[in-house]
Please model this.
Amino acid sequence: MSKLTVSVSPHIHDKTTTTLIMLDVIIALIPAFIASILIFGVRAAVVTMVCISACVFFEWVFEKITKRPNTISDLTAIITGILLAFNLPVTIPLWQAVLGSAVAIILVKQLFGGLGKNFANPAITARIVLFLAFSVTMTNWDSPYDSTNLWVYPIDGVAGATPLALMWRGETEYLPSMLQMFLGIRGGSLGETSNLALLMGGVYLIARKVITWHIPVIYIGVVVVLTALLGENAIYHMFAGGLFLGAIFMATDYVTSPQTKKGKLIFAVGAGLFTVLFRIYSSYPEGVSFAILIMNILTPYINKYTQSVPLGRKK
Amino acid sequence: MGKIRGIKPPHNKNTESGKLHVLPIPEEVHMPMKMHSGKPAIPIVKVGDEVRVGELIGEMGGTVSAPIHSSVSGFVKHIEDRDPVTGQEAITITIKADGKQTWDEKIAPHSVNSLEEFYNHVRDSGAVGLGGAGYPAAPKLAIKNLDSLDYILINAAECEPYVTADDYTMLVDTRHVYHGVKLLQKFMHPREKIVICIEDNKPEAIKIMRDTFIAEEKVEVAAMPTFYPQGERKVLVYNVTGRIVPEGARLADVGVIVSNITTIAVVARYIETGLPLVKKLVTVDGPLVKNPKNVLAPIGTPLRTLFEYCGGFKGDIEPSKIIVGGPMMGYAQPNIDVPVVKTTNAALAFPREDIKNLKQTACIKCSRCITICPMSLMPPNIEAAFTHKNLERLTDLRINMCVECGSCAYVCPAKRPLVQTMQLSKKLLRMRS
Model:
C-alpha cells in the first residue's frame, strides 16, 4: 500500500506564488522600458541591463558568501534593477549604476535579512545615495553624445533640464507641452517620463490584483490637490518628476508599505504631502524619492496604529 | 459596515448533478465512539452480541455527547482502539453485517408535544453538527435564554469545494428539511425568523427550498454570495443578521442559533420514523476518483468501499492524500480504511501531483491574508509573535479567535504554513496558561 500524506489543512492553495507576482510586476514595467528606449535611445536599455545584471549578481554573491539560500528565482532582484535604472539619467556613468545596484541589494536589502525584511525600498534608497554622492552626473540631463545618433536622445526636446527643474527655476517658457508631458517626451530619469506607459503598467497590476488602486490614486490625488491649493499648475505637477513611477511601482512595494488598507491610505496621503513639500519648499526640485523613503521609515509606526480589529474583539 | 467576503477557490462541485446512489451494505462497519465533539460515547454491547439497525450501541458519555446506533444488522466482531478520523483516539465497535438490515424492534414514530420532548428526541436521534464540527445537536439547541432567540439560521451554504452533500439533502430529502424547520418553529419559535442560507451556486436547491417554504411567513430562503468561508458560523451570523458575536461569547448570546441543514433533516426523520442517524450522504470526489458520486452510506463504512463503489481511482493510481471533509478544512487520513462517521460529508482522493510539497519562501508582506481573514486577524503578525514565542502578543492579536478556515494559507503566495502556525500558537498559549 502506498504512503498517504497527512498534512494540516488547507489541502488546496491558490496558484499565485511570489515569483508569479514579481513576473507580473516585470511585465507591467515593460511599456515604460520600451518608452525609455524610444525617448532616450538605446543607452536606456544598456543602463537598465547593467542595473539588472548587477543587482542579480550582488544578490547571488551575497547569498553565496553568507550561505543563505539562493533567491534569484523570486525575480525581486531583477525588479530592483529595473526600478533603479528607471530612476537614473540615461547619461549615468555605468560604474555609478553598478555602485547603486550594490547599495540597493547589499546595503538596503540583504544586510537587513533579505526579501521581506528591508524597511526601505532598495531602488529608492540607492537613487538617493547616488543623488547625494554624484549630484552632477545624477542631474546631467544633457547628452555627452551626438544627439543625431540613436545612442542617446534620438528625439528633440528630451535633452535638457527636467520640467520640475525649469518650474523650480521659474523658466516656464521652456516647458514642454502637456501632451509631451503625458507621453514622456521631456528631460528626466529614463523610466519616469512616460506617464502613458507607466499608467498602462499600473492598470495591468490593478487588473491582475497585484496592487490595489488605493496608494497610486490617493498619492497622485493628494499631489494634485495640494499643488492646486498652493497655486501651482496641478496637472503639470501630476505628470512631472517621478510621481507616476513612484506612486505606481515604488510606493506600492509590499515590503515597505503598510499592511492594512487604513495604513496604506495614511502612507499615500503622507507621500503626497511630503512630495509637494519637497518639490516646492526644498532646495531640490524633485521630491518623490525623499517622500517615499520618509514614509518607508514611518511604516512600522503606521502599522502599529492601524492594525485590523478582530471581529467582535473585546477591548 | 460591509459584509464579510472571503476567497473564491474553484468550486469543483463535480457531483452537483446526477442521482443519489445508495451503497450496498458493506461486510463490516466500524463505529468509533467519538464522532462528535465533547465526551465519547460508552459502548453498551460486547463482542458476539447481536445488533440490529438503529439499535443503541454507545450511550452518551456526558451532557455534551451523543448516542451511537448500529448502522447495520449483524453481530459485534471487535471492540478496540482504531485509527482516529479527526485526530482523536477512540474506541471503535466493529460490526459484521448479516446483510438483512433488520430494524431494531424499538424503532417507531415518535410524538412530540412539548419543548422538553423535542429536545429529548433531538438527543436520542444521535444528531450532531453535520457541517463538520460535530457539536451534539441537543445541547446546542437547548439554550438557556430561549426567550431572546431571534433567528435560527439553517446552514446550507456548503462553501467548501467539491462537497455537495447538503445540496443533495435539500434536493432529495426536502420533506424532512421542511418538517425539521417546522419543528424548530413550533417549539423554539424565534422572534424574527428562520433563515435557510444557501450559496447562490446552488440555484436548484434555492428554487426547491423557496417552493417548499413559499407559504411560510417566518421562514426565509436566502441566496448568499458564493465565497469561502460563507458557511463559517460567525461569518454567516454577521452576513445574514448583521450581528457580531463578541469574543468568547456563544451565538445564542446574540440571539442566534446556527444549525446545519442535514442535522435538521436527521432530527425530523427520527421523529417521523424513529430511525436515528445511521446513514450519511457522502460526496465521493477528488481528482483521482473515476466516477464522482453522492453516496448514501451506512455510518462505519470504510472509505475504501466508497471509493471502490465509485469506480476506484483513475489509472489505478494509489492516492497520495485522502481527505475526509472539504479540501479547505477537512482532515487528511493516515489510511484508506477509516470509516464514514456522522460528520463525514465528503471523502476526497488526490494524486501525488496535487500534493507535492509547496516551496515555502519568505513572507513578502503582501497582506493578502490580512485582507481576506474573515475574523480580521493579522496572520503575519501572529506568525512573527509565534516565532518569538511572545505569548502576550499572541493574546493581544487574538489568536484564540482564529477559526482555522485556512483562507490565509490558501492565498499566501509564499506558501507559509499559516494554519499550522495558528494551531501551534493556540497550543502554546494553552500550555503556558
